[in-house]
Amino acid sequence: MAVVRSKAAVLIAAVMLLSTAQLCMAAGRRMELYQPDPATMLTFHEGGAVLHGDIPVSILWYGKFSAAQKSVIADFLLSLAAEPQASAAPSVAHWWRTIDQQYLSPVATANGAGKETTRVLLANQLSDEAGSIGSSLTLAQITALAATTKPQKGGIAVVLTAQDVAVEGFGMGRCSLHGSDAGAGTTYICVGNPATQCPGQCAWPFHQPAYGPQGPPLVAPNGDVGVDGMIMNLASMLAGMVTNPFRNAYYQGSSDAPLEACTTCPGVFGSGSYPGYAGDLKVDPATGASYNANGARGRKYLLPALYDISTSSCATLV
Predict the structure, then answer these.
(1) Is residue 294 a contact partner of residue 90, using CB atoms and an 8 Å limit?
(2) Do 234 and 158 contact (CB within 8 A), yes or no?
(3) Is the pLDDT of residue 197 over 90?
């Protein structure tokens, strides 16, 4: 049940969040919980490139992940490639199809590439369970690790780090990131497990927020706060990656620190959201878990809102 708060309390909470935002800011952040200014536009920048068509994804599991954790994330990626009608509505596939239709297909069509549907395809998976280069990684090391997956041109290397692996800036500045090598035409994403690292930002709303009113956290749909937090951040980074892979396509603000398809709508997961409240979500009657998207193999996930270019607003699945 939603908690009704006074306007004054909400205003105070919003001020507290904004004043402390610099402690945990980044592309994959969860807790800058404000609604975007409707007058501010996320737009396509002429000459920019997007990823389109079949996009092979290579995963590097860095550190220890259980078989169950890997399955949750792999099923999410499989869900992206499914037909929207393959899962009960609302679905992960519908969320992905919206990105394709609003962002990717228009650019591809304008460039003469046709109307081919964009699909994320799980190409290969590598494991470095021992953490061969240590448990504290720099951003340069993340780039090097991504290269070990040998991503195909037009593909994405995804580095997923375990909860006991620290990444430069993660937990004190970001939850995830994406980057690219424009010359090679390759891109990479890094997402950390936030179970113990900045969970108030990177795993909210499945963990109590780091700042503001301390309401009870929601129940994670896959029973793992860290992995369900990773899904939210991975989804956000995938949306940003395909729509703005080389920081010259769809974004708002500075290209050096862009707001993208999901990060333009931070903290928004369902309709009626406001600072400290994720929005009206679906609840699994059997587990009490909150979610907004159905996926492959009966999975349930919580996915971030997408910026709707046609309405200049944040659109949610529920």
Answers:
(1) yes
(2) yes
(3) no
Per-residue pLDDT at 227 exceeds 80: yes
Closest CA to 61 of 194, 176, 162: 162
pTM, two decimal places: 0.87
* % helix, strand, coil for the chain, step of 5: 30, 20, 50
Tens of pLDDT along 139-168? 999 999 999 999 988 999 999 999 999 999
Asked if 244 contacts 11 with a C-beta cutoff of 8 angstroms, the reply is: no
What whole-number distance in Å separates Cα of residue 12 and Cα of residue 17? Answer: 9
Tokens of 134: 């240590």
Cα-based angle 187, 130, 238 (whole degrees, multiple of 5): 25
Task: Decide: residue 106, CB within 10 A, 0-12 exposed, 13-18 middle, 19+ buried.
Answer: middle
- Secondary structure (3-state) at 259: strand
